[in-house]
Amino acid sequence: MGDPWEFAVHAINGRWFSVFASFLIMAGAGATYLFGTYSKDIKATLGYDQTTLNLLGFFKDLGANVGVFSGLLAEVTPTWFVLLVGSAMNFAGYFMIWLAVTQKIARPAVWQMCLYICIGANSQNFANTGALVTCVKNFPESRGVMLGLLKGFVGLSGAILTQFYLAIYGTDSKSLILLIGWLPAALSVIFVYTVRERKPERQPNELRVFYHFLYVSIVLALFLMAMNIVEKQVDFSKAAYAGSAAVVCAMLFIPLIIAIREDWVQWNLKNQDGMRPATETTVDRALDIAPEVKSEVSKEKEEKAKESCFVSICHKPERGEDYTILQALLSMDMLILFAATFCGLGGSLTAVDNLGQIGESLGYPTKTIKSFVSLVSIWNYFGRVFSGFVSESLLVKYRMPRPLMMTFVLLLACVGHLLIAFPFPGSVYVASVIMGFAFGAQLPLLFAIISELFGLKYYSTLFNCGQLASPLGSYILNVKITGHLYDHEALKELAKKGMSRSSVKELICMGVQCYRVPFIILSSVTLFGALISLVLVMRTRKFYSSDIYKKFREIHGVS
C-alpha cells in the first residue's frame, strides 16, 4: 500500500484535505456576524448614538462585501499569499478595535474606528477568495453543495467563536473582539499552503462524501443550538464552557477523518493502477481525450483575444461560457442580480446588525438578546446548506432555475421583517430564525448563479463584484433610513421627558414604535427585490433547462 510517509504527503496535497482546511478557515471567517454581540460595548464605551453605531455597521458591511481587491489579487498571486494578506488585515483591524474598547489607547475618532472595522471585516474576503474559489474550481460539478457547505461553516462561525471565547475569556464580551482578531488569523496561517487549486477529477461517490460532511455539520449546528439554549438557563462554570468548546473542536476535526478516508481510497486505486502499466483504463483514455478538448478551447480563446476590447464587450458569449470581467459586469443578468442583492442582502444585513438594539427596544434582557444573535448565526448556517444542497438537487433533477430559489428566499425574508415591524410576545425569536435562514440562503445562491452564468475563469473577481450591492444597500437602508428613524423616535421620547440629546450619553429608544416604520420599509424593498429576481428567472429559464455541467464532463474526459 506504499510508504505511510508518502501517503501523508499525498493526503496533505489532496483535494479532500484542502476541503477540510477550507472548512476550518471558513469556520473562523464569520466574525462580522458577531457585531450585534459586541456593538453594545462600542456604543457604551465610546458614547456613540445609534446613527454613529449604524455607520460603523455600514463600514463593517462595506469591508465584508467589497472583495474586488482580494479577487484581483487572486488573479495574479498564489492562494497562500491571498490568505496571508487576509490574516494580517484581520488581526490588525480587530486588535485596534479591542485596544479602543478596552481604553488601552486614546479614544479614536469615528473615522478611525470605521477604518479599523472595515479592514478587519475586509479580511474575510481574502479567506473567501482563497478557500471558497479554490474549492469551487477543484469541484466544479458540485459547486452548489460546495458553496452551501463552505458558507454554512461561515454561518456557524459566530456560534463557534462564541463557545471558544466563553471557554477562554469567560463572559467578558470585550475579549470577544480580541479572539476574533487572533483566532481566524491563526487558522489562515496554519493552513496557508494546503489550500490551493488542484486538477479536478470526477469521483463517482463525490456527492455522497459531501453529504457526509453535511451530516457532521448538522450535528455541530444542533449541538451549538442546544448549548445556546442551555447556557441561557444555567450558569456555566469556566470548566463547563471549556468542555463545550472541546466538543465543538472535536466535531470540527471529524471532516479530517472523512478526508483521510477518501484520500486513502484514491491512494490505493492509484497504486493498483501503477501495478498495471500496460492496461489502458477508462481514465487513461479520458486523459487522452482531455488534451484534445482543451486544445480546441485554447484555440477559441486565442481567436477571441485578437478581438478589440470594445468589440468583445458588445459580443458577449453564451451563458455558461467564460465571460471577461467587463462583459459580465456590463451584462443585463449581472445588473438584475445586483438590484436583487441590493434589496435582499441589504435588508437582511440591516436586520442582523440592529438585532441587539431591537431586543433592547422591546425590553428583552441581555442574555436573551445574545441568544437572538446566536439563533441568527445557527439558522444562517441552515439557510446556507439548505440553499446549496436543495437548489443543486432541484437543478440536477428538475432543471429548476437557481434564481427561482432566490425569489422564494426573498419572500421569506419579507415575513421576518414584518415580525419585527409588528411584534408580539416571542416574535423576535421567530424573526431571528427566519432572518438568519433567509440571510444565509442568499449568499450561496448568488455565488452559484454567478459561476453558472459567467463561467469560472474570472470567478475570483466576479463573485466579489457580485456582492458589492450588499454594502450599498446596507448603507442606504441601515444608516440613512433605519438609524435615522430610530434616533428620531429616541429624540421624541427625550423631548416628552423634557430632556435634550446633550443630557444623555447614550441615545436609547424603547417601545414597538422604534423599528416599526424602518422594517415596513425593509419589507417593501425586499419584496421589490423578489419581483426583480423573477425577471432573471424568465431570462435564464432556457439556459437552466439544459445540461449546464456538460462541458466540465467533456473537459475532464468523463461521459
TrEMBL record:
<protein>
    <recommendedName>
        <fullName>Nodulin-like domain-containing protein</fullName>
    </recommendedName>
</protein>
<dbReference type="GO" id="GO:0016020">
    <property type="term" value="C:membrane"/>
</dbReference>
<keyword id="KW-1133">Transmembrane helix</keyword>
<feature type="transmembrane region" description="Helical">
    <location>
        <begin position="517"/>
        <end position="538"/>
    </location>
</feature>
<feature type="transmembrane region" description="Helical">
    <location>
        <begin position="207"/>
        <end position="227"/>
    </location>
</feature>
<feature type="transmembrane region" description="Helical">
    <location>
        <begin position="403"/>
        <end position="422"/>
    </location>
</feature>
<keyword id="KW-0812">Transmembrane</keyword>
<feature type="transmembrane region" description="Helical">
    <location>
        <begin position="428"/>
        <end position="450"/>
    </location>
</feature>
<feature type="domain" description="NFD4 C-terminal">
    <location>
        <begin position="330"/>
        <end position="545"/>
    </location>
</feature>
<dbReference type="Pfam" id="PF23262">
    <property type="entry name" value="NFD4_C"/>
</dbReference>
<feature type="transmembrane region" description="Helical">
    <location>
        <begin position="147"/>
        <end position="169"/>
    </location>
</feature>
<dbReference type="InterPro" id="IPR056555">
    <property type="entry name" value="NFD4_C"/>
</dbReference>
<dbReference type="Pfam" id="PF06813">
    <property type="entry name" value="Nodulin-like"/>
</dbReference>
<feature type="transmembrane region" description="Helical">
    <location>
        <begin position="239"/>
        <end position="260"/>
    </location>
</feature>
<dbReference type="InterPro" id="IPR010658">
    <property type="entry name" value="Nodulin-like"/>
</dbReference>
<feature type="transmembrane region" description="Helical">
    <location>
        <begin position="16"/>
        <end position="35"/>
    </location>
</feature>
<feature type="transmembrane region" description="Helical">
    <location>
        <begin position="80"/>
        <end position="101"/>
    </location>
</feature>
<feature type="transmembrane region" description="Helical">
    <location>
        <begin position="334"/>
        <end position="352"/>
    </location>
</feature>
<feature type="transmembrane region" description="Helical">
    <location>
        <begin position="175"/>
        <end position="195"/>
    </location>
</feature>
<feature type="domain" description="Nodulin-like">
    <location>
        <begin position="15"/>
        <end position="260"/>
    </location>
</feature>
<keyword id="KW-0472">Membrane</keyword>
